[in-house]
Structures are given as structure tokens and as C-alpha cells.
Design goal:
278 residues, alpha/beta, 5-stranded mixed sheet, 3-stranded antiparallel sheet, 12 helices, elongated
Length: 278
């Protein structure tokens, strides 16, 4: 109707709506469903309400998106704001392009229930994202939510394995009962982690790509670390004492899911059970 010289107020009068509605429709690029209305000449004795209803009846066309797809009207799908903004692609789970070891799909449902002690999640916390900066290795136990902050030289698989070798040496013969399984990312820095299965009874599982919920415990602990070490800050600026203080603070927070006990308390109880057994 603009093309034949109608103003916004004139269109609003013909359609019996507010002029602001016409303006909003133009800004939103709404579908042009308003026909050019013929001027209805009111004959003597014609009710004004009937004439107005006739204008409204001939001014609006109801059309579904399927009708538009059939090209039965001079309208394209791009003219439908609600249609073009919807994602019609089917959701899919991304498949691992690189196979580093066991998939998380092979993990026992008992591990998901968090009833058994000794099942861990692992991730890296980066600082400045440069090769000359340190990195934090953060293994987290799923049942007790206890986690460690281990500073390593860089984010390659050799440094990660050195850190786990030190942990295995620290716990000695109790390692297999404390570290029953480890779930981690399918990234190159954890490519050698599956070698633990050759030297111990620990099972290593790799999560799906871009699926953070596969290891939600360690992701939640990383959020706590970011309160003290924001993204972009260099890790090598903090001393070992500073890292230890952050670790103690995070593991000393009472958790509702642990009946308001701290992760450290629950972890120590589990360790007592293991070391008391012969």
C-alpha cells in the first residue's frame, strides 16, 4: 500500500489498527500479507460498522508456511521472520575424530551414580595461553568432589603423564583403589593418559567432543579457580603456596550434596577405609 501512495496513518485507518503497529511491522520486515484494499464507497443507508468490517475482511490474508513453500503467493520464505530464524538441522552427537582410548560410552553406570569412590575427572586450566606459561592439572574425585591443583610446565602429554606418575608414586600400592578410573577430554594433551592402563588397573575414558556435562564435577571446580585466576592471567606469577591456598579453600567449602560436609572431610574418610584394610 505504500507503493500506491498510502501513508502509515492511512494504512492504519484501512486496517483498523494503530499507526505504530504499521511502523513496527516495517521495522521487523514483516510479511506483506496486507492486500491493496479497494475503496469502499458507503452507499446511502450503509452502516459504517459494516463497511469497516468489509475493509478488514478484504485486507488480510492468512497463509501457512507450507502455502508459501508451494509458491502459490507472491511471498518467499525469507519474508517470514519466525520461519527463517528457526534451526531446522537435526541435533547430533559429535563423533570422536581421534580415538585415544576407551569412549565414555563404555563407562559403567555405577560410575554415573557416584556411589563408588575412586572415579576421577580430569582437565587442564590455562592461563595466558602461551607456550612459556604454566598450566594447572586438576583431577577431581566424583563422589567426594575433592580435587587437586597440580602445576605443570606446559599442556603437552609428556607433562601430564609426569604429574600422574608422581601421584602414582605418592599413593604407591593403594593407587589402584584410589584411582579406579579417570574421565578426561579427547584432546592431544591427554593422548598418553591411556598408558596408565598398562602399568595399573586404572581405566581411562575419553568424553565426547564439546560435551562438558560428561565431566561436570571438574568443570564446576574450575569455575571456583577462576575466581582467583581469571582467564588471561599468567599461571607462573602465582607461587606454589598461592596455588595451595586456593586448593585448600576450594576443598574446605561445605557442600549441600555432601550433607554439608567438605570435600576434604569426605575424601579423608574414604582414605581411612582404604588404608585400614589389609
Amino acid at each position: 500500500m505504500h507503493s500506491i501512495g498510502y501513508s502509515n496513518r492511512a494504512i492504519a485507518r484501512e486496517l483498523n489498527c494503530s499507526p505504530s503497529t504499521i511502523v513496527y511491522d516495517q521495522k521487523r520486515h514483516c510479511i506483506p500479507l496486507y492486500r491493496q484494499c479497494e475503496t469502499i464507497q458507503s452507499c446511502p443507508g450503509t452502516n459504517a460498522i459494516d463497511a469497516n468490517a468489509a475493509v478488514r475482511a478484504c485486507s488480510f490474508i492468512e497463509a501457512s508456511s507450507s502455502t508459501v513453500d508451494l509458491v502459490l503467493m507472491d511471498i518467499k520464505s525469507i519474508d517470514l521472520p519466525e520461519k527463517v530464524k528457526r534451526n531446522t538441522k537435526a541435533r547430533r552427537i559429535r563423533a570422536n575424530k581421534r580415538i585415544l582410548g576407551r569412549s565414555i560410552d563404555e563407562r559403567s553406570p555405577r560410575i554415573d551414580n557416584r556411589k563408588d569412590f575412586g572415579h576421577w575427572e580430569c582437565d587442564l586450566v590455562l592461563g595466558h595461553k602461551t607456550k612459556d606459561d604454566d598450566v594447572l592439572l586438576t583431577p577431581c574425585e566424583r563422589k567426594t568432589r575433592r580435587f587437586f591443583m597440580i602445576k605443570i610446565e606446559d599442556k603437552n602429554s609428556t607433562s601430564v603423564m609426569k604429574a600422574f606418575d608422581k601421584l602414582r608414586e605418592f599413593y604407591g600400592p593403594k593407587w589402584n583403589r584410589i584411582f579406579k578410573s579417570i574421565t578426561t577430554d579427547n584432546d592431544s594433551e591427554f593422548a598418553d593418559l591411556s598408558n596408565l592402563e598398562q602399568v595399573s588397573k586404572t581405566l581411562v575414558y575419553y568424553a565426547h567432543p564439546y560435551t562438558f556435562c560428561n565431566k561436570g564435577s571438574v568443570e564446576g571446580r574450575i569455575e571456583l579457580i577462576r575466581r582467583y585466576i581469571p582467564k588471561g592471567d599468567r599461571m607462573d606469577k602465582g607461587s606454589a603456596e598461592d596455588i595451595a591456598k586456593i586448593e585448600v579453600w576450594c576443598n574446605s567449602l561445605p557442600r549441600k550434596i555432601l550433607n554439608y560436609k567438605t570435600p576434604k572431610e569426605c575424601f579423608d574418610v574414604e582414605l581411612d577405609h582404604i588404608y585400614r584394610r589389609r
